[in-house]
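Exercise 7. Given the components listed, write out the predicted structure of the assembled complex. Treat all entries as one system.
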Amino acid sequence: MVGGTPHDVSVATALSDKTMGAGRLRRLPTRLLSLAAIDSDRRVNEKLATVDARRWHYAVLATLEEFGPQSQAELSSRTGIYRSDLVTVINELVDRSLVERAPDSTDRRRNLVTLTAPGRRHLVKLDALLAEVENEVLAPLSPAQREQLTRLLTVLVDHHSRQM
Amino acid sequence: MVGGTPHDVSVATALSDKTMGAGRLRRLPTRLLSLAAIDSDRRVNEKLATVDARRWHYAVLATLEEFGPQSQAELSSRTGIYRSDLVTVINELVDRSLVERAPDSTDRRRNLVTLTAPGRRHLVKLDALLAEVENEVLAPLSPAQREQLTRLLTVLVDHHSRQM
DNA sequence: TCCAATTCGTTCGTCTGACTAACGTTTGAC
DNA sequence: GTCAAACGTTAGTCAGACGAACGAATTGGA
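Answer.
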């Protein structure tokens, strides 16, 4: 048996048992966020893998279509991809002829990344695939709930990303 | 319905949106989920690191308190930690004397993992820390919105985790 | 005008987490 | 008694987040 030191564990039980109820884990928002994102990410990756794409490909292509040709630094800050990782992503997109990378004549430190016609077409395809995934991920939610979730998450993300 | 907030979606008017409105990236739920989770995870990890803990430590300790002593396989399915990764987590917890791992006499394939008194105390501390993080993460949301978000995420997670 | 600080792209490397494969031991079903 | 499955474990892959540093180019200030 345990030798001596009869510790009273009332400290632990007093706080947790009745006040928090069961399933503290199951209701922990940070954990829910993690789990939901893991599942969502996995589905996105699987779906995009069917057309030899990765998540970041979409982010870059969509940003290029929205804001036009731009430097990698701009792409980095707009997509949230780290500058160092962006290099690889652009390489992959160039390999697939979806974007072009050329030195900026007005500022030779920069590269101008431009969406190509195939890239634009590819983006349309990715849009469709992501719409499918979105439907899978949000399957148990009504349209109103989906809108709600999107709104809440937007508030969170915007709030935590406004000092760059 | 989305009551209140009259001008909510106002970004889409600038560009020629034949296929889709502008800001498709910013409103993509799967992406929002990812970004929110990344931020949340980072904060959780930083906070837990201050007491030499990791995220999974909490999951295991909380599960042990809720369901009592159990095998690693049970812990795995309840926490979502892969069996292979769980080994390391249990090792770390054993090193810190927060749990005990002993062979199950009734089934010698299994290990029975048991929460110790220090483990119980540690769990209380982690609870407090996670409450702080939760406040940071959900800062821009009202209590009602936090409840809403938790509910929506719970629906998602429950729906996608019922094949074990 | 010249020098210092900054920006940009890039390389390299670290760290964590999700996930698979395989293997020996043990158990239960047949 | 045999065989399939469950269990814990080891090893390893892969992607993503993140930091450090560096050369080339640019900008701003003395």
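Discussion: Residues 38, 41-42, 71-73, 83-84, 86-87, 107, 109-111 of chain A lie near DNA strand C (CB under 10 Å from a C1'). The CA atoms of residues 25 and 65 of chain A lie 41 Å apart.
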